[in-house]
Amino acid sequence: xxxxSALAGDGAAxxxxxxxxAPALRAFxxxxxxxxxxxxxxxxxxxxxxLLALHLKRHTWDPSTPLAPWxxxxxxxxxxxxxxxxxxxxxxxxxxxxxxxxxxxxxxDGLEARDARRMVALLSGRERAVVEAMCLSGASVxxxxxxxxxxxxxxxxxxxxxxxxxxxxxxG
Amino acid sequence: MKTEDxxxxxxxxxxxRGPSLRTGVFLALAGALVVxxxxxxxxxxxxxxxxxxxxxxxxxxxxFVVTAALAATALNLALKLSRPGARIAAAAAGLAVPALLLxxxxxxxxxxxxxxxxxxxxVGSYWLTCLTFGPVIxxxxxxxLLLALxxxxxxxxxxxxxxxxxxAGGIGTFFYAAHCPDDSPxxxxxxxxxxxxxxxxxxxxxxxxxxxx
Lengths: 172, 213
Known about the structure:
The complex is a heterodimer of chains A (172) and B (213). With 172 residues, chain A is mostly helical. Chain A has helices spanning 2-7, 11-35, 43-56, 67-85, 99-102, 116-120, 125-136, 141-148, 152-169. The two termini of chain B are 21 Å apart. By secondary structure, chain B is mostly helical.
């Protein structure tokens, strides 16, 4: 399974897995937000925070259990977080989550083009430089390292710290 | 940030990092046992007749059995509570094991001890020491367990903290039992439970803050 390879450090498998999860998470987030009478505009926040949490908490998945319940539990938790932050009572339906897996990818409405600088502004120094290089300019670890005169290991560490900081800034 | 870019960044960070949650908790448990033993040794020490009592006193042995059962089942539940989407029913039911052991022991004690002595057995002679040093010995284990569980992702942080507190209380009273001269299950049911409850409350309080993610 992809997650097993990903946990073993296979970046390509990991990318494929997260890429496959994103549309399902997006559909889930929109459904949850609309069901609780909110604007679906926060959906991309839920998607990104869920992806970030899946990443930073990936060691909490027990490989002897199915992946889906783990993913949806994290998505639900992050959806509640986002809704709580946006005020009003947060309620997430408990069942039928797996249905969204079978739905196609919804329109994106340009939601992805949210203010990137706002997130990056939370970081400073090398972490910021690494995230800017990799997330805004799309550089690989190697390219970012060459550009910033950092070793690949240092880029990875800075990236990892930056991701954790972003997660923390999201109230995690 | 575009989600695609976030995914790219996350997959660039795919290198395996740190032990599994279970391994982390086991390491914390090992540390907790060492800390518990050291704190007991440095403060109260083991009671003089401990080795002899292990073979002659079922009541003395029972104290270790019930506290170890509590620590093991609570730790197992805390681990499950820290895994998103994990099935927790069986692990939660596991907490009944120490509870039933204690209930059975109390029942037996009430049968063999005349009612006139029940009060004396329950109050014992050193309940204040128990209420003081039980928590003192449990504090280090609680800190270590919470540290390990901080890597987890509990849906309800205070609940995971509470159960971690019960486990720490189990570990703390396990070591205190080696000093404690009061062996009656009535004493254990009253004072050890109080120590465990205190640790559970403390764990819930701290957990609600530090275990959020």
